[in-house]
Structure formats: structure tokens, C-alpha cells
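During the second half of the funding period, the structural biology subgroup turned its attention to how the target accommodates small molecules. The most pressing case was magnesium ion, which had performed well in the primary screen but for which no bound structure existed. We therefore specified the complex as follows and requested a full 3D prediction, including the ligand pose.
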Amino acid sequence: MTAEPKTASSTEFTNTNLEVLFTEEQIRGRIAELGKQITTEYAGKELVLVGVLKGCCLFMADLMREVDLNLTIDFMAVSSYKDGTKSTGDVEILKDLSNPIRDKHVIVVEDIVDTGLTLSRLLEILESRGAASIKLASFLDKPEPRIKKGLKIDYTGFTVPNKFVVGYGLDAAGRYRNLPFIAVVIDPANA
Ligand code: IMP
Ligand code: MG
């Protein structure tokens, strides 16, 4: 099938091949709620937000601005999806934390939990490092393909259907992370 040319007025953000699931306003409102909840629950504790690169970038930036506490941030990068859309279950640490988390209260900040294979492995690794507590904040929860059924998401932005979603940090082969909203690519062959 030949790709249809985009209309002259279509841009990356107004691409008609994208169906918006959650708007900027909805995202802002939900993250404010999560931030308030975390602010209340972690008052007086030494909190570290650990973002999982690269997908966490927008969620992390917005969430941390809604948490009115004395906190620090750190990042990890792991490989799970290579360039396709299937989870392999293999997790390789591409970038480790810069600082120890021993005795700290950690919230792992993820873009989406799908099969849960990546996060389960990552949590095992972090749990071996002596943190006082580890919780999970995932912007999106896609429960249908979950393989790790016992994985608990403590703070969820939105639940999504079993479709490949992009935007707000999430990519398809590197593209779309900069969309300020969450969308489904209607025709992946015509991206
Ligand atoms: P899991 O191991 O299957 O839970 O997913 C691991 C990673 O795959 C997530 O952290 C995302 O980076 C990516 N991923 C899963 N589902 C989607 C999606 O719908 N869109 C974009 N990335 C996804
Ligand atoms: Mg991720």
C-alpha cells in the first residue's frame, strides 16, 4: 500500500493519522492529583524519584513539579523494546543510578506498564540495593497484555486499551515522544 501524502496544513501535532486519547488538559489535571497524593504520603521522608529513560521524560518533569517536598531525582535507562513493539523480557541496564538509594524512599517513574516484564526485573534489581521503600508510578497502565499479574502500580495516571500508544514521552521507533498528548497511531503503516 502506498502512503498517502500528508495534507499541506498537517503538522506532527495535527497529524490526522493520530487519534487523541488524553489531551494536555486531562494530563495536567491528573498529574496534579498524583502530585498532591505523593506530597501527602511522603511528607517528612527522604524521597528519590527514579525515572526510567527515555519514556519517563515528560511525566517525570511534570510530576516532580507537583510534588511539594524536599526530594532528589535520578535516572536509569534499560533496554526492553528494541525498535519493534514486542517485549522480549530481557532487561539490560544501559545507564545505572548516579547515587545509592540505600535507606531512601524510592518512587520509580515509568511511562507505561504493558507486560510488566521490564518493570518487574528493574524492581528486583532496585530491591536488592537496600532502599527503605520502593513504589511505582506509571503514567499509563495497559493491563490487558500483563504477564507479571502481581505487579502493583501504586500511582497510575490513566488506564489504556490494548493498543500501541504514543506521545507524552512514548515513542514508536523513536518518533512522537514530543507530542503533548497521548494518541493511538491509526494506521502504523502510514506513520
Ligand atoms: P513492558 O515490559 O511490556 O511492560 O513494557 C516495557 C516498555 O515498552 C515500556 O516502558 C515502554 O517503553 C514500551 N511500551 C510498551 N507499550 C507501549 C506502547 O503502547 N507505546 C509505546 N511504548 C510502549
Ligand atoms: Mg519505558
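Two results from this model are relevant to the next phase. Strands lie at 18-22, 47-53, 71-79, 92-95, 105-113, 133-141, 155-159, 165-166, 182-185. The CA atoms of residues 67 and 143 lie 26 Å apart.
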